[in-house]
Amino acid sequence: MATTVYESIELELLDGTKVEVKPLSLKKLRELMKVWSEGTAKSTNEDEFLDLLITCTAIAFKQFSPALAEDRDALEEALDLQTMYKILEVAADIKLNDPNLLEAAKELAGQI
């Protein structure tokens, strides 16, 4: 009997679409992490960072829901911020709403 070693969740998006989210294949993860590392280095404001989150979520959706991945407007209409955080957490192990990480990021940015 096979053992599953990853988390898989079903999310309902704002438009009512249900999507099963699980870790990305290595191919998709590499694509997402390349965009993530380049984007975080270049993001200078909240709007640019939000665009980066949406782009990374679209990459993840190539595996979960290709139709939504191809239609950025539909993807943006279907998502809220917390759902996007959860998708990136499960798909790529990027934890964006961890209070400890947020506090460390503020310290690094000189906001504290």
What would your notes on this structure say?
This protein has 112 residues and is mostly helical. The chain has one domain (10-107). The protein is built from six helices and two strands, in the order E-E-H-H-H-H-H-H. The protein has a two-stranded antiparallel ribbon. A hairpin with a 5-residue loop joins strand 1 and strand 2. Helix 1 (26-42) runs antiparallel to helix 2 and helix 2 (46-64) packs across helix 5 (81-92). The longest helix is centred in the middle third of the chain and has 19 residues, at 46-64. The chain is globular. The protein starts with 8 loop residues before the first strand and ends with a helix. The model has no long low-confidence stretch (mean pLDDT 89).
Which consecutive residue ranges, at least 5 long each, have pLDDT under 50? none
Number of domains: 1
Strands of the biggest beta sheet: in what spatial order?
1-2
Query: Total number of helical segments?
Result: 6
Largest sheet: 2 strands, antiparallel
Computed structural class? mainly alpha
Q: Could you tell me the strand content as a percent range?
A: 5-15%
Q: What value does the average pLDDT take?
A: 89
Distance between the termini: 51 Å
The rough form would be described as globular
User: Using only CA atoms, what is the Rg?
Assistant: 15 Å
Sketch the topology as an H/E string, one letter per element.
EEHHHHHH
Number of strands: 2
Fraction of residues in H or I helices: 55-70%
Topology:
Blueprint: E1 9-12, E2 18-21, H1 26-42, H2 46-64, H3 66-70, H4 72-78, H5 81-92, H6 99-108
Antiparallel strand pairs: 1-2
Helix pairs in contact: 1-2, 2-5
